[in-house]
Specification:
heterodimer; A: about 190 residues; mainly alpha; Rna Polymerase Sigma Factor, Chain: A; Arc Repressor Mutant, subunit A; 9 helices; B: about 130 residues; about 0% strand
Chain lengths: ~190, ~130
């Protein structure tokens, strides 16, 4: 028996077949959950965001035309949802976090200079928190590039922006992070 | 490309985003430039430090995730019906009721002043039907 394609399952799901939608969730959950986890860096928020992305997809099934693959369409929904959450979190972030983030910068500086990258859980968390310093669009573009290995063109499609915007976002994100680390680095790296 | 131009685009080179000739030129330059080599090292390390590979997902956790999503889908579907009912059915019912009451109680010039208008109109219609019958 041949396995139903994503497109066929999406059509069935749009007609109210919950079993078909469950199969789509099963197929695409690993990628969506990984994207949310890498982007949001908080297990509970990421889990909720991944569920919400599927829920939004379910509500929008009637608008899925099938021109792009279901995976691409779903990925775009998840990317936009993560971006919304990052923007909301950015608005909530208080200046009181700055002291903590300064401490994190020094951990990142160490991670860039020592022979092997940060390995303790605390150090990894501290380094990951550095991403909070970036504006959401830069952070998401860098995450899609580094974690998902998407090309700049794929990122531009996922984020609905131009190729030049993607290049600028990734370049600025890296430059800003390296600059923060450089500020706390006593010695230069060879 | 000059050193500055290449230095500016080291990230793109690292991501494989430069075209063939630009990438080859950048590679040759990086081989002979300590500053660019150092920056490439830092960019690579930055990616490793920020985005350490996550543990592979447990298949059982995927099934639990599917169950949670489907529970929310189910709740969302019920809630959508409730919203639909609140938004469209309740006002429609209200309008229908108002129309019915208006039909029954609205003043009609030819109606008997003592009888409810709907009843008067109904009795007038009924008598005309009886008159028309053979």
């Amino acid at each position: 028996m041949t396995e139903a394609s994503d497109g066929e399952l999406a059509r069935l799901a749009a007609d109210g077949d919950d079993g078909a939608f469950a199969e789509l969730v099963r197929r695409h959950a690993p990628r969506v959950r990984a994207l949310c986890a890498a982007t949001l860096r908080n297990a509970d928020e990421a889990e909720d965001a991944a569920q919400e992305a599927f829920l939004k997809a379910h509500r929008a099934l009637g608008r899925f035309s099938g021109e792009a693959s279901f995976g691409t369409w779903l990925h775009r929904i998840a990317v936009n949802h993560c971006l919304d959450l990052l923007r909301a979190a950015g608005r909530r972030r208080s200046e009181s976090l700055d002291a903590l983030l300064d401490a994190d910068s020094s951990v990142l500086a160490r991670a860039l200079t020592e022979p092997s990258p940060a390995t303790t859980l605390e150090d990894r968390d501290a380094v990951a928190r550095m991403l909070n310093r970036l504006i959401p669009d830069q952070r998401l573009a860098l995450t899609l590039c580094e974690v998902e290995g998407l090309t700049y063109e794929e990122i531009a499609r996922a984020m609905s922006c131009s190729l030049d915007s993607v290049k600028a976002r990734i370049r600025r994100a890296r430059a800003e992070l390296l600059e923060m680390a450089r500020h706390f680095s006593d010695s230069d790296i060879v | 490309m000059t050193h500055e131009q290449i230095h500016e685009r080291l990230g793109e080179w690292l991501d494989g985003e430069l075209d063939g000739s630009a990438s080859a030129a950048a590679s040759r330059h990086i081989d002979s430039c300590a500053a660019c080599k150092s920056e490439v090292f830092r960019l690579r390390r930055l990616g490793e430090a920020l985005f350490a590979a996550p543990a592979a997902a447990d298949p059982r956790s995927t099934e639990a995730f599917v169950a949670r999503v489907m529970a929310r889908v189910s709740a969302d579907t019920v809630s959508s019906w409730e919203k639909f009912a609140a938004r469209f059915l309740a006002p429609a019912f209200g309008l229908a009721l108002a129309g019915l009451l208006f039909t029954i109680y609205a003043p009609r010039p030819e109606a008997d002043a003592d009888a409810p208008l709907g009843v008067a109109a109904l009795s007038a219609d009924a008598s005309s039907v009886f008159e028309a019958a053979p």
